[in-house]
Amino acid sequence: MDLSPIWLTLKLAGITTLLLLLIGLPFAWWLSRGRSFIKIIAEAIITMPLVLPPSVLGFYLLLAFSPQHGLGKWLHDTFDVQLVFSFPGLILASVIYSVPFMVGPVKSALQQLPGSLTEASYTLGKTEWQTFRYVLLPNIKPSLLTAAVLTFAHTLGEFGVVLMIGGNIPGITRVASIAVYDSVEKMDYASANNYSLILFSITFVLVIAVFMFNKYQAKGPLA
Amino acid sequence: MISVDIEIKLKAYHGGQLLKIKRQFVSGSVTKIWGPSGSGKTTLLKMIAGLSAPRKGKIVADGITWFDDEQLINLSPQKRHIGFVFQNYALFPNMTVQQHLEYASNDTDWIKRLLQLGQLDNFTTHKPDHLSGGQQQRLAILRALATKPKLLLMDEPFSALDSKMKTLLMEELKPLIKQLGATTIIVSHNLQELEIFDGEVMNFEGLV
């Protein structure tokens, strides 16, 4: 059995989760602070991957990443980077596709914290960054973990967007979900079953871990 | 000297209500604010602290303008160097008693003294959810004092303490506040409990 699709999937999910932690945290924090028209629009845009068919999102990303058009052309001409049918392209598409899974839970958790925690930190002379780092972030740990695991698990299960952007290039873009589809098409049900079972097991363990962690945390004061 | 001349718009069920406050708080003095719920006591404290802004007016502390709507000055809470005791304590659930004080100050001797004052020296490793209501309230007071503020704003600071602890803490607090030279404004719904502090009473009853 060729395990490269599994490793590629784990690599893609890991990188996507890390990138979304870096991008999603400040973004969720910004969204959690008050309301404005710009924030409503921004939130609507990042929620689109939740409601759009993956093929629609994949189609627009394919157009955007294409070396013949706009962003894709600029990246190709300026940096000699090709996003379509490449692993970096898959990462970018996954980040866009999974953004609501990271930003949503983190934003909700930040909004649920009493505003007086931030105010108390400010009256102690602490900056916004210090308040975020030492007060807000540690108090949303369970939600942060849930968001990270959801993002990771969601990336493991990506199919439509991955197929549109990456295609099915072994070792480069052929992730596990594509390998399952490919095996079924070839009537190789044994391989399809193996890939599916591995994906199922990984995601099941992740979800169980989140439930267990959250149950333990539920004894805390923020439950 | 802190000079407050502001106009506050209070939220009410039938639209907002305007509250005008003009008052001078002498350096090192204690002012006891008393009044019914919703009369704007907490709002006034938050505006002095810079946690919210008045509709218009001016707040000047020791010659430095903290707020002036005409000059568009609104100093951040961080720059006002105040101590604030929140009514709901606003303790950080992730921090122990010791960490609360260390977050506010680097002065280890001062932290030790505060812990003794609040009788929390045996609870330094406890997080807020493992403290009683009274202990949480004491920690909130100690944290506000940890930065050695020149202005101490306390919103119902003794409400969760039993009468014995209340008397004890207030007796200890009194010289400490005097030593810090902090101008103190205490909001309470129970004026009697503040009798131990000498100072003027500001009555919010009937202002709105």
Protein model, in words:
The complex is a heterodimer of chains A (223) and B (208). In chain A, 77% of the residues lie in helices and 0% in strands. Chain A has 11 helices and no strands. In chain A, helix 1 (4-32) runs parallel beside helix 5 (87-112), helix 5 (87-112) runs antiparallel to helix 9 (160-166) and helix 8 runs antiparallel to helix 11 (189-217). Chain A has helices spanning 4-32, 37-51, 54-65, 70-79, 87-112, 115-123, 128-136, 141-156, 160-166, 176-185, 189-217. The termini of chain A are far apart. Chain A is globular. With 223 residues, chain A is mostly helical. The model of chain B has no long low-confidence stretch (mean pLDDT 88). The longest helix of chain B is centred in the C-terminal third of the chain and has 18 residues, at 163-180. In chain B, the strands form 2 sheets. Chain B has a 5-stranded antiparallel β-sheet with strand order 2-1-4-5-6, covered by helices on one side. In chain B, strands 7-8-9-3-10 form a 5-stranded parallel β-sheet. Chain B is built from 6 helices and 10 strands. Chain B is globular, with a radius of gyration of 17 Å. With 208 residues, chain B is of the alpha/beta class. At the A-B interface, helix 6 of A face strand 7 and helix 5 of B.
CATH class of chain B reads Alpha Beta
In percent, how much strand structure appears in the residues of chain B? 25-35%
Rg of chain A is 20 Å
Round the mean pLDDT of chain A to the nearest integer and report it: 91
Structural class of chain A: mainly alpha
Number of strands of chain A: 0
Largest sheet of chain B: 5 strands, antiparallel
Largest sheet of chain A: none
Flag low-confidence runs of chain A: 218-223
Q: Into which percent range does the helicity of residues of chain A fall?
A: over 70%
What's the CATH H-level homologous superfamily of chain B?
P-loop containing nucleotide triphosphate hydrolases
Order of helices and strands of chain B: EEEHEEEHEHHHEHEE
Could you give the order of strands across the largest sheet of chain B? 2-1-4-5-6
- Characterize the overall form of chain B: globular
CATH architecture group name of chain B: 3-Layer(aba) Sandwich
Secondary-structure element string of chain A? HHHHHHHHHHH
